[in-house]
Structures are given as C-alpha cells and as structure tokens.
Amino acid sequence: MDCLLQSYPEKERKQILQLVKELQLSPATVSSRLEVLSQEVERNLKKELQDCLAFSITLDESTDIGDAAQLCIWMRYVSSSFEVKEELLFVSPLLQRTQGSDILKNFLDSVEKFELNLDKLASCITDGAAAMTGHQAGFIGLLLKHLGWTIPAFHCIIHQQSLCSKLKSTDELEEVMSHVVKIVDLIHSKPLQHRQFRALLEEIEANYSDIPYFSNVQWLSRGAVLQRFVDLLQPIHDFLKEKGKKDLLGKLENEVWLCDLFFLNDLTRHLNDLNLQGNQSINQSLFIKRKSAKLSKRC
C-alpha cells in the first residue's frame, strides 16, 4: 500500500490510508477471517492437549431456545509446563436422542478430532441426569466400559446446590423456595403491579431497582433470587400488605419461616461463591490439604 501511494503528497496519503482503514469488510471476508482464526485456535489447542500431562472432562447437555439438544464438553488439563488450564473443547448438537450412548458417541468423536490420549483422562464431571450418571446405559457407565478401567466420576457442585434446596426430605426448604417463587411471580404477573413495585423501590431509594425471575434452568438463579429477596424483604412485605395479600404475607411475619429463609439463602450464597471465585485455587488447596492429611496419618 505504501508503494502505491508514494507519488501522493503526505497529507493526501494519510487521508487515503484513513479511508481504506474505515472500509467495511464484506460478510464473506469476515466469515473467512473468522474461519482462519478458528482453525488457528483449534490447532493450538490440539497441540497443547496432545502434550498435556493429564486432563479431566466436564460434560453438560442442555436444550437451547430452538429446542435443539446441545452437548458441551470442557476440559481442565495440566500442560507440559505444569500449568493448570481450562478450555471449552467442543459444542455438538444431539440431533435425535439424548441417551448415554449418543453422548458417548459425540464425546468419542471429539476425542478423535483432537487426537486425545484417553490414558491421560483423570476424572469426569457431569450433572445428575440418568443419561449421564447411569451405571449401565448412562454416559459414565458406558465410558468406563469403553476405557476398561475406573476413573473418578463427580457430580457438578452447582447441581449439588440445586439439589440442596430441592431435598424432598427437607420439606421446610422446599416450602421456603416455593413461597419465594410464588411472591416473585406475583410481583411480575401484571405490568402495572410490576411498575408499582419498582416505583416503591425507587421511592425508598433501595439498593436494587427490581427482583429477578427465578429460572430452574439457570443453576445460579436460585441463590441470586434468594439473596435479592432477603435484601428487599421489608419493601416486599410493605408491597404485599398494601395489596392485601394476607395469604402470602403470613409467612413473612413468621419467625421460624424467616429463619429457614435466611438459612437457605446463606447455603446457596456460599455455594455460588464457591463456584464463581477461583475454582482452580480452591481445588488445588483442597487437594494439597487432602494429601497433607494422608501423609500426617502415615507419620
């Protein structure tokens, strides 16, 4: 480009270069560049995974907005320079069924694509779905049969958080979450009612301008909704009292129910923090403590 513009004066040359820089690339060019970048990232990841010392996998199957089942595979591995890294390995649609055999096939396809050595596989983490954890037809059971040896299989800790507040044997916790969701849904049920609640929060200069919906699909939603509910407990109480919702208001004036609410909120908040803050350092710290305890017993 500089050679082509040598005959132009300095000022005009700068203007031409600026105009060239501002030109928008065509969709085909953008797509081509993204494809080249994607291939380069994949090539580098493939090389790192082939040279790694050990790795573990995390799998999750979920349905997107278009009702298509998507399988995501993450990897945590120890590189040849002894660095612990995490990468998204593969996102693959499950076109028909979502059984353990289908998940295993997609996983083995990604293993073949990245030329992974399964001898280096140290552990596997999944959710609690039967298609994942089943000993016979689930992914874990089929994977162990395919490997021919046993590896540790763990339950995702965020799912454990969800299960903590869904324990059927703990009716109090189940009832607390159910009542909180009922109140949140009431606030959002009508546009006018929702606007009035937000206006109340603005009037009292609350720290938050709204309370979010609860979503069962979003694992961290339970802790987020409970924390916001507790923080806005007094405004919510006043709003229900103003609307004459005595059936919902009674729980908020019951000290025993409030204790259960605060307990469930603390439980989910701590589990959320455990997932969101340095998971790598936490896991390494737990591993070191566990090893130290074993060594001290031997001594």
DSSP helix fraction: 55-70%
**What is the end-to-end distance?**
73 Å
Task: Write the element-wise H/E pattern from the N-terminal end onward.
Answer: HHEEEHEHHEHHHHHHHH
Question: In oligomeric terms, what are we looking at?
Answer: single chain
Strand order of the largest sheet: 3-2-1-4-5
Determine Rg (CA atoms, Å).
27 Å
Biggest sheet: strands, sense, closure?
A: 5 strands, mixed
Shape: extended
Counting helices, strands and paired strands, the structural category is alpha/beta
Can you tell me the number of structural domains?
3
> Low-confidence stretches at least 5 residues in length (pLDDT < 50)?
none
Overall pLDDT: 81
Count of discrete alpha- or pi-helical segments spanning 4 or more residues = 13
Strand content: 5-15%
